[in-house]
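QA checklist item 7 of 12: single-chain prediction sanity check.
[x] sequence parsed
[x] length recorded as 384
[x] structure emitted
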Amino acid sequence: METSPPRAGHTRTTQGRLRGWNLTVFLPPLAVVGAVLVAADARNWWEATVLALGVVAAMVVLERWTAGDISRVVVPCLIVTAAVWPFGVLVADSHQAFYGMTIVVPFFVARLPRHRAAATVGLGAFVAAVGAAELLESPDDIPGVLLRYVLVPTAIVVVATCLMFANRRFYEIIEEAREREAELAVYRERVRFAGDLHDIQGHTLHVVKLKIALAEKLVRRDIGRVEEELREVHALVSDTIAQTKQLAYAQRRLNLSVELENAKNLFEAAGIRVRVNREAAVDERVDGLLGQVLRETTTNILRHAQATRVRITLSRSGITIENDGAPHAPLPRLGGLAALRERVGDSGGELTVEQENGRFLTAAEFSHPGAATPRPPARKDDNR
């Protein structure tokens, strides 16, 4: 979860959810309509078999589209549905045999890299030309033939193709909105970090300014007081340096309740549903470390997952954060979570990270909450 997936992968994930929803909603009724049309038009079993091939080809394309693997089937299925249409016109006397093309043509045209308008016009002309061939069989009913075999089939195929363009644009708009919300959430997190940094350094610098001004006034009258003020300034600066390091390495003690409220706000701003389960009141001795776990996990979800749901479970001595939308690739290097795992381990706890079937779980548990006093960070050279 620490390695950002490419934008295309993010887009495919979002579109996959919408496609799955479309499969559930539209595939059954479309299949039923196709079966009814075949039953109504076929006069014998072999006509029913040929007409059914067009319906089956259309359903195959729709199902493969929801799986994101349409490229290998769309052309063969287009050929099948295009062959069923002239069979229906010239043999089965079926003005509804274009049904399969209504579904397959939009998918075929939508995946073309260019010349989509020309392809739409060309396929519409094919439908109209085949339908017009019925005039050879029924020359006495020109208006009826033109309406049922030419105008209606052509209009339906062309309109369905245009709607596919609108549908594709809808996916793009949804994805763009989701990305903007995630970027806004990350921006808010950065602003909050800047606020924490200001809280640490702003107050100290103001106090240092006052103490130095006081020392300037006392330098010729009370050298002992000046030395005392300078020692306090030195202590303040040293403490500020330590707090800044802790903030930079996410070691500053956090308040779990504040972090929980912030995480909920960030997730909701990004369009992610949040559910919080409180099994027991959290032991105050592990409150800060659990707040660090929640903050790091929240940042990871916003930056690296395509989550729609997050569930946070709090117990007396632990926290569990579970989200969907995790990449299906092998678990990457943990980065920030790896460093946090060491701190949790040093404090007598255990940080667990799992990824499976698009689900990502982060859990921290302390078997003995009283032991959750973090060790001081290793001393580093200030000039580094």
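[x] summary fact logged: The first strand starts at residue 273 and ends at 278.
[ ] second reviewer sign-off
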